[in-house]
Specification:
elongated; 3 domains; CBS-domain; Tetracycline Repressor, domain 2; 6 strands; homodimer; MgtE N-terminal fold
Chain lengths: 434, 434
């Protein structure tokens, strides 16, 4: 590759899908990558650019002139072009946009830049086929042929009125069977799913996957058709959403990847570890308060990691189920019902586990009262942990906070402290000391 | 609803999307649900059926005759029909299939039943438009019109040879611009992405989302075109996959939902809690071995929950990043490089946390040597936890085991034990006691 065998490389790259080229380029150094990108046909370059890792793309674009960047953007759909522009340094955005020769394309891109990245507006593209309800079928077909040039795949034909307000959609079949002179008003289907520009991407994803849609029109506050979102963008949203929840549950607070720098990874991980540290110190302080127990009942202290671990595990299990139920919108019944169910579930699990622990501790130390005290505390700890794990995500959800934050370190830490407190308190009570 | 106001309900339901009707029916009792289902138009009923919860659907189908079920299945695409049949009791499957009047549809469904649910074959549908490379454009258009009747949305036209082997695809545009007498052989695009029937659904999902495909053809072992998978099925696969990984990380071993029975939930949760119990007992045993320390250095015991929590958190963080990297295929570099990086990352995090802990313990107990011993152990524990968290998923992946199983309770438990062992061992060494 370093020999710069232009021709051989060029023919080779012709054969390869742009997503694969992007993967190869991600692995190269900056010079090699820029060289390869410049070698590619323009149509392909732009597609490769959208697939690259953000930092690689940034480096490569830094080596291209504004004119070259503008050329690539012209080849892209407006949504991908807007995403790339949003990453460029402020100084050159203006320049790049002014270099785009297709002024309508430039206008569409600029429009898209105004929308919040985290909204339907930030996801949508301007490429769509729209027809006026007052046109005849004939005008419509002519106009469509013109519009379709800019649209890679026609998912649906949308019908608007003179104000640009979305009225419905048109099936290709109806269009072909209708008389050419009929006004569109008489043939279109008035029922169409749509989303508002301000809708959250997760909501759009839910709607599209619930109704199995491949594209959905986006309207502004007064119902005017402003763009459309396709299912491939939604697939990315679903993946990112899942990754984010998974990372939150694991105690990682930003969207990081294994290949990010140590500094970025530390910033994402340290806050949660800090929380754990505070929790641990709290637990230590609690145990310090029960120090007098240590001479007679040292064994109680040996089981604190067990109690803490069980409290944490049960809490994470309960909260994970609730968080998932909330995310998929399939929770039924009231909070009270849910808490009662979780309590029974935790009590059942607790009983089984406590019985096993009882036998073990009894045989190990031969001291039935202590073994009983530990096992009974375990049940109590598990039940409380289950309730806390169920209640916190439901509570956060009610308050409009993403409940995903509640799983992982947050639940673990608070349950550790609760658990240890309950454990020593019950043990002390049962063993009649203090 | 219980008043059986047939007409009013019927008109109401006409207006509602089938996915919403399914949601309503999921909330009703069996009688109400069956009543409502029978009220619907046949075309809608079948769509509603595919969207229902599995147990609700089972109950409703139990109240329908084989003939009625067969009628619904005729309305469905082959993939959805096969999914429903696969859930029916063995005795009536035969009967239902024999009641399907469209024999080709029945044959297709039976074909699909043979494929493993967890493979591309289990996901695909038989509905597709395929043309022979030896046909002329004219024959092709005529045939397509006939085939397209059975296909809701035409994603692509696939080209096969006389043996049925997939050769390529055809763009609608090329078809329309080519001379009607030209053989397909001369106009088709020989490059087409496809998957094997035995491919795992996750792999299909990766390929389709990487190349932004809306449909992909499926071929058998010798390359014959046997079906196609559409993006909406893949969206479901991605969601299920993410849910499964999330639950594994939270220590839930089967695909359960918050609304499943207490017994099912217990079966999914208990095994992992049991693991935690064993780990806790192990930790207790280790601490028992250091019992002699307790008289002079009780404070060491107070910090065991902290040590265990930190070891668990760091382990989960490291493994989650690796598991995600593996799932998204974006890990680069060798295992050694990764371990070295994780070691440095953990050491950095460990140093910062240890410094904070040192100050706190020193002020609390005024005993610098003990505080130092605890903090130094913390660093060692964090580094080891990071290495274990990185290594285990990579190791499992190498051995062909799903690394997602490694996050959550598995890592937490092993790191708890490791952590506590290292902690007491280092503390003993540093404090010079034995």
């Amino acid at each position: 590759i370093d020999d710069r065998q232009d021709d051989a490389l060029h023919t080779m790259m012709e054969e390869v899908h742009y997503a694969d080229i992007a993967e190869i380029i991600n692995e190269l150094n900056e010079d090699q990558a820029t060289y390869l990108i410049k070698l590619l046909d323009s149509g392909k370059t732009s597609d490769v650019l959208t697939e690259l890792d953000e930092d690689v793309r940034e480096a490569i674009l830094g080596n291209l002139s504004s004119k070259e960047i503008a050329g690539e953007l012209e080849e892209l759909d407006t949504d991908d072009a807007a995403d790339i522009i949003a990453e460029l340094p402020r100084e050159i955005v203006q320049e790049v946009i002014s270099e785009i020769t297709d002024r309508e394309h430039a206008r569409d891109i600029v429009d898209l830049l105004r929308y919040d990245e985290n909204s339907a507006g930030g996801l949508m593209a301007k490429e769509l086929v729209k027809v006026n309800e007052n046109w005849t079928v004939l005008t419509c077909v002519r106009e469509m042929r013109h519009q379709a040039e800019n649209v890679t795949r026609v998912h649906s034909i949308y019908v608007v009125d003179d104000e640009g307000i979305l009225k419905g959609r048109l099936s290709l079949k109806d269009l072909l069977t209708a008389s050419t002179k009929a006004p569109i008003r008489e043939v279109y289907i008035p029922k169409v799913d749509f989303v508002n520009v301000n809708e959250k991407p997760e909501e759009v994803a839910k709607i599209m996957s619930k109704y199995d849609l491949e594209a959905i029109p986006v309207v502004d506050e007064i119902g005017r058709l402003v763009g459309r979102i396709t299912i491939d963008d939604i697939v990315d949203v679903i993946r990112e959403e899942a990754d984010k929840d998974y990372q939150l549950a694991a105690g990682i607070s930003q969207d990081v990847e294994a290949d990010d720098s140590i500094w970025e990874l530390t910033r994402a991980r340290l806050p949660w570890l800090f929380l754990g540290l505070v929790g641990g110190v709290g637990a230590a302080a609690i145990m310090g308060g029960f120090e007098s127990l240590i001479s007679q009942h040292a064994i109680l202290f040996f089981f604190t990691p067990l109690i803490a671990a069980m409290a944490g595990n049960v809490g994470v299990q309960s909260s994970a189920i609730i968080v998932q139920g909330l995310a998929n919108d399939d929770l039924k019944g009231s909070i009270t019902q849910r808490l009662v169910k979780e309590m029974m579930l935790a009590a059942l699990n607790g009983l089984i586990l406590a019985a096993v622990l009882l036998l073990f501790t009894w045989f190990w130390k031969g001291n039935l009262p202590t073994a009983l005290a530990i096992s009974i505390s375990l049940i109590a700890v598990i039940v409380v942990a289950g309730i806390v794990g169920t209640f916190i995500p439901l509570f956060l959800h009610r308050r409009g906070i993403d409940p995903a934050i509640a799983t992982g370190p947050f639940i673990t830490t608070s349950n550790d402290i609760f658990g240890i407190l309950i454990y020593f308190w019950i043990a002390k009570l049962l063993l009649g000391i203090g």
